[in-house]
Each structure stands twice: as C-alpha cells, then as structure tokens.
Amino acid sequence: MGDREKGRRGEREIQNYRPGAGAFLARRGHRSVSLSPFLPFSPSRLLPFSLSSTLILLVALAPAALAAEPPGAPKEWVVLVAVGTHDDKSVLSLKTTANDVRTLRKILMERGGVPEERILELSDNVDKNSSRSPMAPTLKNLCEELPKFIKQVGPDDRLLIHFSCHGDRYPSAAITDASNAGPITISTDGPHHFESGDNVSIWDVRGNTSANGAWTIEVKSPTSFTLRGSAGNGAYVGRTGSAGLVNGMYIIPKDVSTRTYPEDLKKTALPSAKLTQWLNDCPAKEKFLVLDCCHAGGAKGGPVVGGRAVYVEGKDVPGTIVLAACKEKELSWEWGERNQGVFSYWFCRGLQGGADREGDGKITFADLYSYVYKHVVRTSKQLPGAEEQTPVFKSVDVPGIPVVINLQPETQQELYKRLAEDLDVEIRESKLKQVGICDFTAPLQEKELEGGLPARCAARLHTNLEKLQKNAAYGIVSSDEIMAAARRLGIEPRDLGEAKNVRKLRKEFPDLGAVICGSLSMREQNVYVRCKFVSADSDAVNLGGLFTDLSNSIVERKPNEVFELADGVKLVMKRIPATGKQFWMGSPDNEAKDAKDEWRKDPANSDYTEELHQVKFTHDYYLGEWKVTQAQYRAIMGQNPSWFSKTGAGKEQIRGMNTDDFPVENVSWEKAKDFCQRLNDKFQDRGYRFRLPTEAEWEFACRGGQTDKNTKPFYLKDDGPTDSLSGGQINFNGHHPFGKGKSGEFLERTSPCGSHARAVNKFGLWDMQGNVCEWCEDYYSNAFYSGGHGADPLCKDEDANFKNRRVIRGGSWYLDAGSCRAASRDSYQANRKMNQIGFRVCCVPVGEK
Do residues 59 and 287 make contact, with C-beta atoms less than 8 angstroms apart? Predict the structure, then answer.
C-alpha cells in the first residue's frame, strides 16, 4: 500500500506519475470502477460501490469437521487470492494483502471449521504453519485453477472466493457526440459487453455522477450502441469534452504488464467478465460478496486519465449478499498499527466472535454488518490523516437473514487475547484516562463454573489488557479495587453494568471512564464469556466468545508446582495451606524482651512496630521453595546483577565457586516485580499469577503455619519453633546469636540456597530466615500493620512516614540473629538495591488475590 504513516490505501504518489500509465497505475487512492461485468445490479437496487485492493466473495459458512460430515451434507469451499507484489515493478505493492489472507484463512479453518483440503490459495503469502504452499497468483493459474476448483462445488454447498489485489477498468471508447442533448451514438474499438436496456451513469474521474438522470443503452451492433436519456444529459457530457467509456473491469494478477497501457490489460489481466461467468455457472446456494475497496490504482507513474467515464450496471446474480468497505466517493484506509485495512481488520474480528451478539455462536449477516459498520466508521475517524469510511451492503434474492459463520470454540488464551485487543481499541478510540475491571459472574446453578473460574477469567483479561496498555495513556483499576469501592458506595455487583453506577464510582476514581464486566454461562459443553464495556457517557459495547477447555480453567491444587524456566533450571513452588486459617502476627509477649529492647534502642529502628495482632486468610497460595537464585533470575531476565557473582563487585569472596544456586541479590523491588511479570507472560497458560508475597503471607509461611498465640522467633528443621539461634544454623552474622544460642561462623557473604541443613521449616521452605532479606508486596506502614484491615491484608497505599519504602523480611548474612526473627520487620526504597536484599516469588490461581 501507499504511505503507511498516513494509513491510506491511497493518494500519496499522484504527483510522481509519468505519462503513459493508466488508471490503476495512476491513482493510488481514488478510482471509481464498475462492478457491472463482475456482479451486475438491477436499477432499483443499485448501490454506488467501487473496487480497489481487496475483493471478497464469501458465503454463509457453517463449521463441519470433514470426518463428521454425513453423506450429502453441505460443504464449504474457499478460494483465497492475494497479490501483494508484481513482476512489473511500476505497479505499487500492497503491503497488507498477505496478512489479510493469513488472518481470514486462520479464522475460517479454526473458527468456521473449513478443512484445509477445501481451500484453494493463490498468493504470494508464505505461511509456515500450512502444509500446502500456495500457487503464484499469475493470470494462467487464476484462469486454470479457479474454474477447476469451483466445478467441485455442489448445489447445496457454500462457496467463498476472496481476492486481495489491485483492480482496474479499461476505457474502450470515446463519446464523440457530446454536445447533442438527444441520443448519443457510440462506436467502440472492440466488442462491448452491453445489452439493450442496460442502465448507464456518467461519472467523472473523481467519482461525481451526472445530476441529470440515468441513460439507457440501445445496442446497434457488437461495436456500437446508442445512449438515450432525459433532456440536458447530452449537454452535461458535452461541457466536459470527450469521456472514456468503461466496458471492462480487470483483476490485476502478479504478472500483469503495463508497458502499453491500457492495451496490456486485455492480455495480462483477468477480465471480471470471467469471474461473472464462473459465479453464474456455480450452483452454490449462498454467496456472500465483500468488497474492501477504495478508488485507487497502483503505479509509481503516469497521468490521471482525463474526461468522464460511463459506468454500466446490469443484471443481478441471485443468492448473493454484497458488503462493500466504503461508499463510491470514499477511500478504504490502512491501519498500520494492526497491519490490516480498517475494514478487513473489523471484518475478521467480527467473524472471530466480535459480532456474536446473541452469544449462541452464530453470526448472522445482520450481526456482522452492524458490528463492521460501527467500528469502521469510528476507527476511520480516529486515524491521523484519514477520512470517514462507511461500509454499505445489499442483498440479492437471499431469503431470510443467513448465518455467516457458526463459531467453533477457541482456546482461552486466544479468547482473552482477542477480547483484550478489542477492549484496547475501544478505550483508545474513546480517549479514556482510566478503566476498571469487575469480577465476572456466573449462574449459581451451573456447577461447572464454580471454583473461582469467573474471577480468574476477569484476571486473565486484566493481564492481557495490561500488555497492550503499556504503550497507551490509560490506567487500569483492578477488580479488587472496583469491587471494594462498589461495596462502600452501596452498588450491587450485578448493577455495575449500568452507566449510572460507573458515574457513581467516579467519587473514588475521578478519571474512571468505563468499567469492564462480564458473565459466564454454559452453552452445551462450552463456556460462553460475555464481556461488557460500560462507558459512563455512552452506550455499552458487548463482546463475547466461547471456550471449551475447562480442564485448563479449574486449577488442580497440587502440593508442589514446578515451572521449567530454562534447560535444567526449574522453579519449585510449595503450596501453603492457608484457606480459613487465622494466625497471630507480630512479637508475642514472651519473646526475648532484652533482645527486642536492644533492637529498639537504635533510633533508626524505633519506628518499626511488631504489635501482635490476628490475620485471616481466605485462600491458599504457593511460595518458592528457595529464594530466587542467580540461575533462575538469569534464565528469565537475561542477566545477573548479584554482588556475589563472577562479575559482581564481591567476586573475590566467591572466587572458584559456582554461584548458580546462590540467591540473587542487588535487586530492587521494581526489578523483582518485573521478574514476576515475565513469569506471568511465560506461563500464562498454567493458570497461575506470579507476584511477591504479602507481608502476612511471608510471616505465616515462615512460621510453618503455626496459628496459636505462643509463637517463637525461629523455625528450624528438627528443632521446630525455638527461642534461640546459634551461629552456623542459618547464614547470618554468627557473632551475634539470639537467646541461649552460641556464637559461631560469620561467612560475610551469601551462600547456596539449601546449603544450611537446618534452615528449612515445616512447609519445606529453605532459608526463610537469613542469607538475604526478601522483598514483600506491601508498602511499609505501622498504622496499617497494627490496625484492623480484614482478611488477606495488603498495604497498597504509601505511608507518608515511609516514602516509597517497601517491606523486607527475613534478615540477611550481614545482620544479627535478632533481625532474622519471624516477626522482625524492615523496609527499603523500592527503586534501590543492595547486596543483602533478594526475593522469593509467590503464585496463586488466576482470579484469586
């Protein structure tokens, strides 16, 4: 296509054309052409269509796996033709045709159930995923392969023919008697294709028609005819001088020649009259014609053909629905960001499920047209430098409202990705600053949808939308925040899909422009997801789709989950059974007061509270068996920032050692979060969401699940909960033991995870105390820690007394034993790093907190 920055399938090279080239070579963006030889229209149903880069003949499709077809069942036959590059380099290349074909082909096979053996492809598209290489779209191949393929189509079958290429028209005669207000006699330089009674309009090269009525053809001979019209028509033509007569439209193949244009069209292009003949001869009961077109040509040189052209409209082909990308005076635009034309993009999105308004997996033509019309008009207005593009349609003797496609279920990954992409477009085109995501709902009687699936669906959609949102100017409010605000404002969850309640939510989120809510329901063995985009100021937008792989929806809770990060590098996650548990968090009264008092004598530590309080959990979670190691970090992030590594500042202290199993350190909270997000991207199909543990989750896991009030400061293998810690039991500054513990080794560096035999607790978690401190999800706050904040506490708000500081827990190789106690708390700036701080990852089933 032309200038992709401007986005137009059109008019960027007009000023560079050299003399001698013709219409399809001369104007990239605007070329009014006749559909009459391709698909004649009756006068009463004439729509002002034009054709350029994409021409689609489609049928009503119904999925049917080939093996499951009963004898005599209707079959679907598909022809895909795409020409992006040409042997004649003076013809402009089309840059999106290959992707249009790839996308449509994938949809028809995966969502429409069309088997590959009934798809004929002639294109310069190279699809590595296809078992068949397409034939080149040359004139010879088109003329031989298309009719041969179409002959296989039966009377009850459905046929699709899709052209994505250039088209042009041949000016075969001149009007020589233009000043006469009466009948005008035309002599052509070759046989014309007209019949007496055909209707004629007179257009100029910009697509403007005569305002003085239509003309009627009276054939005199194979090379002459008369134009008859109302008084004044002849004068209208006469003021222009001579006008070209279009009596042939051509599809431009890969091997078209433009040396002696337009004569070369007759020899090297495909006459649309042949397509009309094939269409008329085809007995298929339903045909669906889609024209993604602008009025453009395709070459780098040549003048605009002057004068006025005569366009003929003839007879209809029964059983056909026609959908055109734009009106006759409009252009069809390219969408560089999506690598498709605006019309093609939304046409494909509609077929994928976007147009499934009823949620029954059946997309009717009415659904599809409504969906495409709305989105194409709006998107064309939003594109920089673009003009409005308006799809139009007509139906020719097609009874009822045919179903275009019966959707087969897609995978959950594809569904969430597609919904997120559509939502991203809605948000951007609506120019919203902020959107919120609500928990999805499901009917209580549908047991298949229990187990947190609705919440996980919302969370997966959130994750996919976040990936697209990174380069946009809008923010996303999580479902936790939206649902909590709704409770405070007295809004029932089922009522969040109302615009008035979106406006109510602005009391807490002033920039909120819309919420995304949804519901799940069963359709036989499939799950239907209805996603609703509810704006505060405009009509709601419904999106939806089907998935069937419920086995991936319900997460089986195993004692351990193993994630392969790279060859030989695994991440083992231990399940922490916390559902319904309530434990005492903080320092109990009987914990060694002398050590606690000694710790608090330091002014730097006086603000750190360990007030004893109870915390409750509503869900299980998984925690890394080890702190994240240097090998694990390198496998995901591609680097090793550790101080104690072969390239780190502390390399002399670990000379000769393999540090792969040493904990990664010198990592900021922000980098730790980035690590978790990359795990989410890598393992999004596993049904888990990675994050850092909350401070409460960390302490409950450190204590091995102990829930009574008489807790201890240390939790070691064999010893169990204990009041004392001696040097050498874990990696800390052994010169400063705790309680009745004895002084021991001080390594002055980190050590391999799991290398201290007793540094493992009841849950099988190693080094929860000592080696390196661990980042937690929470902001540091004394007020939040001590106050009442319900179940599953997480401090999301920055404390004014601890600017940008996040919680760190567990103590380190450098600190004394008192700093390694289970209740000991500390904090550090989220954007800073040091060689005493690493992290451990947490994961929960998608949809849980």
Answer: yes
